[in-house]
Every structure is written in structure tokens, then in C-alpha cells.
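Exercise 7. Given the encoded structure of a 278-residue chain, write a plausible sequence.
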């Protein structure tokens, strides 16, 4: 019996033919950046539990980021398990999808809860044209990722009746959204990651229309190694040992803008932060 991991090995989030246009656009952007046509800066936000005060104050604040120009977050594939209606089921139109805690299923689902090391995900959506200086208040973010077994709710065998680890939040006045979740697994052929879509408004998100940006957040190797050494993540240890972020099919052409800043511990949980210029 084939699992969803086998499918991803062969088609890699819908296949190379699907990813090539996205990758080509990204490489063109980076070529233009190298030529000085597009200024590019990293936009990871910082959590002050481990970052230096200077880094935390500059990276975590959209107004501070306005001192330098920034590029739009790279576009990426949504993969084969988006749940946004583009590949079968559409969870965005379900009552209850707008929520901050995405660890449990909601609505008419099986009602399960995803187990794992706690992870809080804070994303800050900003206007790239303003040099990242203007937060995108009133936008919306749909976020989803796999569980600690590498399975995606709604799609993977055994969790097709679940819809956990999926949710929508509206950005506040600072352009921020926060999700309470668990640390995702590392499954075959993919670096540990989290998917997200940015919409112009909450109304657009829950009607699954007018996506502004589709991208992926990458998780740092040292944190992944610490998490995968805990109970429940044993399969991720071997999978991670065979990968590097530099050779990942999505992040291999550059990941500076997508690598989250992650702080915390396995005992108390982690916080991942990233600024998303759109």
C-alpha cells in the first residue's frame, strides 16, 4: 500500500512540471537581484528569548524594516494537500476554520487532536513596496502543515476525516497572525516546512478567492534535530539525515526569506516567527 510520502517522492508536490514555472520565476527574481534591479533583504522576525537585542528590535518590527527595501516572499507550490479547493476538498468554506489554535479538528470532522512538541507560529504580513515598513492590517493567512507522522489531514490515509493543523487568521493592526500548533515531521524527500497562503481579506480567504501569495516556511536544522530526538518523531530522524535545505527541491534556490527564526525548547515548546512581504 502506498502512502502519501510515496506520492510526494514521485510527483514532489504535484511534480517537477508543476514546480518548474515557479522555480523559473524565483530564479529570474534572484538574477535580477544580483544585477541590482531588485534589492533583497532577509525578513525573519526574531523572538527575544535567544536573539540579540539589536537583531530582535530590527527584524521583529515592520517600521524598523522600512529602513531597507525588501523583496516579495518567493512564490511556491501549495503542494498536493492544500485543502483550499484547488485539489479536491475545500476546508476554507467550513465554519470554524477561522481560529488560532489548529491542533484539533473542528466541525463535522472526526474530532482528533494532533500530538507533538508545541509550536507557536507568528507571521507578520507587510507591504513589500513600502520597504516592509507598512503592515498589512486586515489581510488573512491560511496556514497548514503535516502532523508528526508526516500525514496531512483531509488527504493522508488514516486522517482523511480529520482537518487539524489547518486554520485561517486575520492580520491585526501590526500585520500579525499567530497560530498554536505542533512541530511538523520531516517526511521523505522534503525539508521540514509549513505551507501558507496570504489573502487580501478574511472574506477572500473563507471564500477561497484572490490569493495574494502562496509560499512555504522552512524550519532550522538544529531545532528540527532537537525536536526529532523526542518521543513520536522517530521516523523524522532518518528522513532528516538524508536531506539538506540546500538540496531541497523547493528551498535549494534560496531560502533566506523563508527560514523562520525559532526559539524555545522541547520541554516548553517553540515559537517560529517570519515576516512575509507581499
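Solution.
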Amino acid at each position: 500500500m502506498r502512502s502519501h510520502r510515496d506520492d510526494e517522492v514521485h510527483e514532489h508536490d504535484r511534480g517537477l512540471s508543476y514546480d518548474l514555472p515557479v522555480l523559473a520565476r524565483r530564479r529570474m527574481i534572484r538574477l535580477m537581484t544580483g544585477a541590482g534591479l531588485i534589492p533583497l533583504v532577509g525578513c525573519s522576525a526574531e523572538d527575544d528569548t535567544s536573539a540579540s537585542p539589536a537583531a530582535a528590535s530590527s527584524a521583529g518590527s515592520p517600521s524598523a524594516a522600512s529602513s531597507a527595501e525588501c523583496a516579495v516572499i518567493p512564490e511556491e507550490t501549495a503542494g498536493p494537500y492544500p485543502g483550499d479547493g484547488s485539489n479536491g476538498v475545500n476546508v476554507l468554506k467550513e465554519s470554524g476554520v477561522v481560529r488560532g489554535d489548529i491542533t484539533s479538528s473542528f466541525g463535522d470532522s472526526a474530532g482528533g487532536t494532533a500530538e507533538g512538541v508545541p509550536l507557536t507560529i507568528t507571521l507578520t504580513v507587510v507591504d513589500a513596496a513600502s520597504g516592509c515598513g507598512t503592515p498589512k492590517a486586515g489581510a488573512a493567512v491560511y496556514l497548514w502543515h503535516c502532523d508528526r507522522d508526516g500525514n496531512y489531514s483531509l488527504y493522508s490515509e488514516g486522517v482523511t476525516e480529520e482537518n487539524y493543523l489547518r486554520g485561517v487568521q486575520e492580520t491585526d493592526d501590526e500585520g500579525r497572525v499567530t497560530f498554536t500548533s505542533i512541530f511538523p515531521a520531516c517526511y521523505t524527500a522534503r525539508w521540514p516546512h509549513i505551507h501558507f497562503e496570504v489573502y487580501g481579506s478574511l472574506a477572500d480567504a473563507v471564500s477561497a478567492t484572490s490569493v495574494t501569495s502562496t509560499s512555504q516556511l522552512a524550519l532550522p536544522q538544529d531545532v528540527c534535530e532537537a525536536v526529532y530526538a523526542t518521543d513520536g518523531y522517530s521516523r523524522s530522524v532518518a528522513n532528516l539525515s538524508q536531506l539538506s535545505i540546500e538540496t531541497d527541491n523547493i528551498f535549494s534556490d534560496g531560502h533566506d526569506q523563508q527560514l523562520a527564526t525559532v526559539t524555545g525548547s522541547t520541554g516548553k515548546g517553540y515559537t517560529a516567527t517570519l515576516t512575509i512581504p507581499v
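Remark. Residues 154 and 160 are 4 Å apart (CA to CA). Students should compare their own answers with the one above.
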